[in-house]
Amino acid sequence: MVDAPAPPPGARERWAAAYDADPAAAHERLRELDPGAAAAVHPNDRRRVVRALELTEAGSSLAPGEDRLWSAHTRLPTLIVGLDVPQDELERRIVERTHAMFDAGVQDEVRAALSGPISQTARKTLGLDEVATLPREEAIEAIVVRTRRYAAYQRKWMRRIPGLVMVESADDVLALARARE
Fold first, then answer.
1. Where are the domains of the chain?
2. What digits encode the pLDDT tens for the residues 2-23?
3. For a FRET experiment, which of 3, 10, 20, 135 has its CA 20 to 30 Å from that of 158?
């Protein structure tokens, strides 16, 4: 789905109410209307079920017709490379980057962001709640733990890419790219 048509007025509210009344029935309705989207969306994912139903009503789909980016049939022969940073180096970078964010004033930035309206997407930013609610050292520790978990998730996600070539490197990405020029 690239350019989805505009949903009918009130569609999101109507589908959200239907989901809130009976999540299983809402997901079943999605399965009837758009089996591909229903297969891609977990029944407990309220936001995506509602969005998929909204798109279906507008004549579109949440599920792409073909996942051309990661399929074995990409448009052109493509070499997809992932950098595999050793665990100890990754840990060092996470800790260093977290401290650098605090040294650069992330606490003031978070206060400013939270002083006005903030989108639900921005509200989910890794570390936002920690910076806003915890003392500096506790926030740093919590962010390091969450970032470490997120990095592990990303590594698992990358392994699913067909034909991915992993290159072990502790080098800086820019230095590595320049060395290949």
1. 11-57, 81-179
2. 466 777 888 899 999 999 999 9
3. 3
Q: What is the pLDDT of residues 76-88, one digit of tens each?
A: 667 888 888 899 9
Whether domain 81-179 has CATH 3.30.200.210: no
Nearest to 78 by CA among 160, 2, 175, 161: 161
Token digits of residue 46: 């309220």
pTM given for the model: 0.57
CB atoms within 10 A of CB 27: 21
